[in-house]
User: Fold this.
Amino acid sequence: MTIKQYIEPVVIISDVHVKSTNGWKGQIDGLRRLWAAAGTVVFNGDTVGVREASDGTSAEKILTYISEQCAKDGAEAVFLAGNSDYFLDVAKHLLLAEGRILITHGDAIFPEMSPWWDEAHLYLAARDSALRKMPQELRSTLEGQLASARKATAELAKGNSCENNNSSFTGRIKKKLQSWLAKPRKGWAIAQTWKTMPSMAAKFTAQYADGVKFIIIGHTHRAGVWRVADKIVVNTGSFAGFGQPVIAHFTDGKLLVQKLVRRQDEFFPDKTIASFSLL
Ligand SMILES: [Mn+2]
Assistant:
């Protein structure tokens, strides 16, 4: 496998979830301090959640704007696909440090993608079918697993957009009611997912990328660093809502995880909460 040389320091963030409303440029500008000293910024999935913002700007154009802001600050932006922006024509993972660090959004580590989700069972079936259609030797590889996750997400999105177009007013009310009723169950499912996420990430790494020591993900919107057996799991969290994201920072054989502070609409790197030497 060939690994591209990325200019260090490499900064990794996830789940920016750029707003689809007018404030999207300001939101991106508020992140510039995060890559001020970086050579490369990896946006580890769910950077955008919609194909088009309300002002008509496409997801691809929003990414171009992000790339331009990074370039102004001397950093190259690298985008990976998450489950919300599965449609982007970009990779779903990246290996750093001679393959010892795996960066991927994290939806693929759960067979159901988002176990708290109402349609988890549909996704599970779609993922299963995508895997069954794959040549056997590909199924148990990292690439095969990630491809099946992306395929299942795309399958489901296709189904949902038909449903939305045809849904009646009473149908929509019914759906809303159902989602309110499901709230306590959902809260429990999210808490369960947060609990199992480190072990699921470590298991996924051991199964499909065993040479990897560090797996850096996002997706569950809960930031943190965990050691599970011989793997280190880093979750960089999310910028959506009241999320408390962190950044991972790789340079000179050292991996740091840094807290961020938010002042109004701007994020600034703060205390280092974990540091690892890969040398
Ligand atoms: Mn996600």
Remarks:
- The helical segments are 24-29, 59-72, 120-132, 136-139, 142-166, 169-181, 183-208.
- The pocket of manganese (II) ion is lined by residues 46, 82-84, 105, 107, 219 (CB under 6 Å).
- The first helix runs from residue 24 to 29.
